[in-house]
Amino acid sequence: MSFGTAIATGLRKYADFTGVASRSEFWWFNLFLVLGSLVFGALGEALGAVWFFATLVPFLAVGVRRLRDAGLAWGLIFIGLAVGLGTIVMIVLWLQPTKVTVENG
Predict the structure, then answer these.
(1) What's the gap between Cα 45 and its chain centre?
(2) Rounded distance, CA 62 to CA 67, Å?
(3) pLDDT tens for residues 63-89?
(4) Can you give the pTM of this predicted structure?
(5) What's the rounded Cα separation, in Å, for the pair 77 and 86?
(6) pLDDT at residue 104 above 60?
(7) Which end of the chain is more exposed for a tag (fewer CB within 10 A), N or C?
């Protein structure tokens, strides 16, 4: 999936916690979120906070879809709440290869 397609998919599925997200979709969308954070954070603390809260739900949604794609339980997203070690664990989980096969029709 390309950078632009990942952004479009992430925003289109703003609060969709069902289905799966490929590694490329997940990482491209997260790159978009980080770049947006850098830009809006540089423009002002208030804009950075607005960006954070506006993109929190899509970040969680794509994270849950990525866990499902790796064949993991969606509830593992709560590990990310543990600052520090939880972040490292989540990155490792999100890096796992695809294990779910989607059957057509």
Answers:
(1) 23
(2) 9
(3) 999 999 999 999 899 888 877 788 889
(4) 0.86
(5) 9
(6) no
(7) C
Residue 61 Cα distances to 17, 28, 90, angstroms: 5, 14, 14
Dihedral pair phi/psi, residue 72, rounded to 5°: -105, 160
Look at residues 94, 86, 87 and name the one whose alpha carbon lies nearest to residue 70.
Answer: 94
Instruction: Identify the three-state secondary structure at position 96.
Output: coil
- The Cα–Cα gap between 41 and 99 comes to 36
Supply the mean pLDDT for the chain. Answer: 90
Residues 6+ apart with CB under 8 A from 78: none
Q: How many residues would you count in the chain?
A: 105
Cβ atoms of 67 and 91 closer than 8 Å: no
Cα–Cα distance measured from residue 96 to residue 85, given in angstroms and rounded to the nearest whole number: 17
Tokens of 63: 């994270």
Q: What is the largest CA-CA distance in the chain?
A: 48
Q: How far apart are CA 28 and CA 53, in angstroms?
A: 19
